Amino acid sequence: MDYITWTYFFRRLVMNPSYYSLEDISHESINKYLSNLVERSFRDLECSYCIEIKEDDRSIEPLTYGHISSYYYLKHQTIRMFKERLKAELPIHELLSVLTDAEEYSELPVRHNEDQLNNQLAQQLPLQVNPHSFDSAHTKTHLLLQAHFSHAQLPCSDYNTDTKTVLDNAIRICQKAIINTLKQEDQMI
Question: Beta-strand (E) ranges in the chain?
């Protein structure tokens, strides 16, 4: 809590409390808001297998998935999804779906009218995607990876830039250590 009070976020919270749904900037209100924020964050990390909260002594212990998430700069939602969906015998098309559903790809831009370009690109590629999701960043990621693997022609130059972004992230997300660690930990359970 003390650390948060030294951040830019705290300054924004005090300067514009209504943006954060705070009614006032009294010490009590800010303390309650920050306490709830920290507790929610801990619960999210615990649900993502990144930390263990020990109720007996109120301590927090990082877990293997938390170390992996931190080391590879992965969002905890990605780690949770990998833990829940990665299996030893997944076919390639399902592995590609798991990879492209990573939270890191949710910020890939889908520009105006690119849903139509995604639809056209999907017609040239071997693996089908949900036809109702052409405006999704994850679907676009899936299509760009397929196009890269198939050496398909991309519809515009923006897609070349986006492919580079997707591939750069894929290297980080797919580090051998992540998959090996996930596999090892599942075998220990």
Answer: 51-54, 59-62
State pTM to two decimals: 0.82
Q: Domain ends where: 29, 48, 68?
A: 68
pLDDT classification of 182: cutoffs 50, 70, 90: low
Give the integer Cα–Cα distance in Å for 107 and 39: 26
Residue 123 and residue 52 share a domain: no
- Which residue, 17, 47, 68, sits at the end of a domain? 68
pLDDT computed for residue 13 by the predictor? 94
Dihedral in degrees, nearest 10, Cα atoms 119, 146, 149, 156:
40
Residue type, 98: V
Closest Cα to residue 125, out of 113, 140, 103, 143? 143
